Amino acid sequence: MRSPVGRSAAVEGITKADTKLPVSVQGRTMAYVVTEPCFGCKYTDCVVVCPMDCFRESEQMLFIAPDECIDCDACKPECPVDAIFQEDEVPDVWQEFIALNREMSAVCPPITNRKEPLAARPSEPSGP
Description:
By secondary structure, the protein is an alpha+beta fold. The chain has a domain at 31-105: 2-Layer Sandwich (Alpha-Beta Plaits), CATH 3.30.70.20. It has helices at 45-49, 96-105, and strands at 24-25, 28-29, 32-34, 55-57, 62-64, 84-86. The strands form 3 sheets. The protein has a two-stranded antiparallel sheet. A hairpin with a 2-residue loop joins strand 1 (24-25) and strand 2. The longest helix is centred in the last third of the chain and has 10 residues, at 96-105. The chain starts with 23 loop residues before the first strand and ends in a 23-residue tail after the last helix. Residues 1-11 and 16-28 have low confidence and may be disordered.
């Protein structure tokens, strides 16, 4: 099990064995969705706090496997570009990312460790 350092208190100690199904609200499966602001940035702060290892990596962005996400809210506050939304809170302009996360998470490899982002953090200078 990965170190819980940096995880929110609400999910510390949760393992895959603790939960087998995503959270369901009124019969609907809920999951978090990675949206457009992640494209070209690909920060991995969210990856290391996910207790279910449900993030997948493509060349330009990350995706969340919706059938593995337990809707724990650990990843959302870790994203420096605010690219992660609960499925029912995805802005209208990025609704296509709900299906894109499902489609791409099925074909992209899992990512469980922090990596260098593609872009400088919003608070970092971008060049000389």
